[in-house]
Structure formats: structure tokens, C-alpha cells
Amino acid sequence: MAPSNDPADFSKFRSVEPINTDPNLAPASTWDKLKQNFGMFVEVSKNRPLSETLCLKEALIFGIPGSFFCSMAAFLFSTNRRRVFQAAILSLPVLTMGRFTQCRMSKHHERKATILVSKMVQAKMLTDGTAKQAEFEKLFKKSQVELVDFEHQLDEIIAKQQTGGK
């Protein structure tokens, strides 16, 4: 049975907009730059379930208990009910949006690193055995120190996640 090209079949897949890597397509005005910087919040407004929105469920799981603990801390420092309520109401959006922003930025950096690695592999494949191979090797040796440091940092993160340590 051949796969169909029905759009309903593809509705289950989450679409991700490509990263703008072309300098000719850079935002022209300050307003365009501002819209591009806050483009990660556009996905929240697409009227999807929370479980399908990248990082939002995690941010709420972090923000709601965090708000509870902030209100409990406010109660311990001051038994004023108004202060406790204010601490709970103010800490919920601050903690939630902070975690959401941090998570989305880390996903953005992971995505950029993936694109960079794929471009490096493509350049390596295209330059092997050609006159440009020496130029690629020279360029790669420049960035090799940064890549080694980056690899060590990734290894530490993976080890911490696997052992559950801090």
C-alpha cells in the first residue's frame, strides 16, 4: 500500500520553522528583530494541547510547585495573608516564564549545534579529495579546541543525567 499525501495524515506531526541562516534574510527593522527574538512564544498561541507545546508542560510542572513553595516561604517570613497571596500570584508567572524561556533557548542552541554539525559533515564530504580539502582542514583545526571543550561539557552533562547527580 502506497503512502497517501493526504494533509490529514501529516496533521499529527509538529511543524518546526527553519532557522534563518541566510544573512540576506536578516530582519530589517528593530520591530522585526524584536518579533524574531520573541518568536518562540508564537507556538504557545497556536491553540494546541499543552502536552504538544515544546517546554510548556515542563515549565508549568516547575512553576506551580515553585509558586507553592514561594508562598510557604512568604508565610514563614511574614504571617500576613495578603503577602502570602501576592507571593503566590507573582511567583507563578515569573517561575513559569523563566523556565519556559530557559528551556526554549536551550532547545534553540541544540538545534543550531545540530545544523552546524550537519554542515560540517556536508562540507567534509564535498571537500574530500579536492583542492579545497586543505582549506577545510585548516578551518576545522581552528575550531577543534572549542569543539573539544564543548564535547567535555556535553560528556559531563550526560554523566550527571545518567547518574542523577547534581
UniProtKB/TrEMBL annotation:
It comes from the Eukaryota. The keyword Repressor does not apply. Pfam families: Cox20. The keyword Membrane applies. It is found in: Mitochondrion inner membrane. One of its GO terms (cellular component) is mitochondrial inner membrane. Keywords: Membrane, Mitochondrion, Mitochondrion inner membrane, Transmembrane, Transmembrane helix. Its main location: mitochondrion. One of its GO terms (biological process) is mitochondrial respiratory chain complex IV assembly. The chain crosses the membrane at residues 59-78. InterPro entries: Cox20. Belongs to the COX20 family. This is Cytochrome c oxidase assembly protein COX20, mitochondrial.
